[in-house]
Structure prediction request, 580 residues.
Amino acid sequence: MLTRHLGASVRHLVLLLLSVTALAPVYLMVTGSLKSQGDFLDHPWALPSSPRLGAYRTTLNGQFGHWLINSVIVSTGAVVLTMVIAALAAWGLVHWPFRGRDTLLGIIVSLMVVPPVVLLIPLFQVGAQLGWISTFRIVILTYVGLMLPFSIYLLANFFKTIPGSLLEAAALDGASPFQVFRRIVLPLSGPPVATLVVVNLLWAWNELLLALVFLQSDEKKTLMVGITGFQSRFSLDIPTVMAGMVVATLPLVAAYIFGQRYFIRGLTAGGLKGE
Amino acid sequence: MTAHATSVAPAARRARRKASPGLGPIPWVAPAAAAILFVFAYSMVELVKGSFRYQDAWVGLDNFKLVLTDPLFRTAIQHNAMLLLAVPVLVAFALCAAILLFESRRGLAAYRAILFLPYILPIPVVGVVFGQLLQLNGSLNGALDGLGLGGLTQDWLGNPHLALWTMGGVIVWKEVGFGIVLFLARMLSLPEDVYEAAKLDGAGFFRMHLKITIPQMKSLVIFYIISEAIVMVSWVFNYVFVMTNGQGGPGTSTVVTELYIYRTAFQDRAPELASAAAVLLFLSTLVLIVGFFRVQRAGEGTFGD
Prediction:
């Protein structure tokens, strides 16, 4: 009994230690944003002695708000488009099955691990030829292409689990494939759609490399691109930098809190089916 | 694709298709096919074509020769290879933490949410915060001093012998949550009676997990290893770019292949050389991508619904 309690205490001690390690940088970021520069340099780990929001004012007065809006436009645009296109394609693949379809799905999902840096140079050259550099179009189009493989894969695997009898009955009633899709398939698809929205939103929001190359004018920068320059511009004003980081993270934390269940489901689905 | 659908459709499907003639799946899959073909197929073809050219003239393998003899490219590849050493560390940490969580039903949800938090943070944010934390006069060294561990203080990012390992540590900090959540989800779905029986037989903590838990995690661990290997070889650009202000410094001590490609293409304006490097990077990830594909397919057989 005693060893049992001891074991439990050791367990919690280790978990506590891990949690502190996971949270320490986040703690530093949040408290740092509420301190004065001097306070931060003297006591980086202490709670703010007199919390102030001045750093947030400096942050948001700059171009930060603008970048935030750009990020919202690019992320939502890319995710909405991805969801529509992926749902149509997944239903197309499930409703009209053919030999080798599952192999094709396997190949499609493998595309999600192709490193974006490999695709970057040709995409940039096309973008330059079309005059699309520093437009949202090229970024959104690329994001859609990169998010589609996993989205199609997940939705197709979900659609396959919808009982055939349900679909047969509707077809016998003379419903067209589109009617079956809209009236039966989509209403059942809440959970996988929510999963994909959360996973894809996080991905698009956090993407740096493509946005860095495609969005060169200051007007069009996304938050992640802005942050990298922001850091060097305000390198002597740590609270302002930290406030910027908090603002850039908040939408994610909100999405995470609302969609944690779906997000975890999405991650494990990426691992193996039927988790 | 369509020809196949017509020739092998089972009778039931055929009857249904008669009721809805037309183009079949084509309109449904066309937009996705167009986007995927553009972003992946077109790009790959153009990339390979570009890697054999210099200013529109065919130069054979010259670009590849130049890249392969570039000391910076070799350094970059070596750095990616060194970062691969973080993969076993990640697996070990994630497995241990997942087992500890699995054992502590109380507080599981809270611990899991906290340990998973780093994984959802944007890498640029992580880079900026750690960049501050790891300065010579930064908060980590301050904390070490305060704890009486002043001997452990280091110039984490400024020492060329240490900077890459520091980078690896930050990546582990960020990526381990993914493994924990992945492994824990599987553990929680394992049948409980096996554990009850093992406990009745007097199996201890280590024996139980070594004999029961870990063998059941095999395919998932392989999946995690492959995913993280792909990260180390081809997805570390964000960390390096943000934490070293795009330089890969100090000196060349944190230059990785992605940064080499980015700088060669967009700063040195030598897209041909960068294309050759990108082809080489793609070929090396291809091994991992094929592995990923096979695990994915095998997973369907083992865990299929």
Observations:
- Chain B touches chain A through 113 residues (CB under 8 Å).
- Confidence is low (pLDDT under 50) at residues 1-9, 14-20, 301-305 of chain B.
- The CA atoms of residues 115 and 177 of chain B lie 6 Å apart.
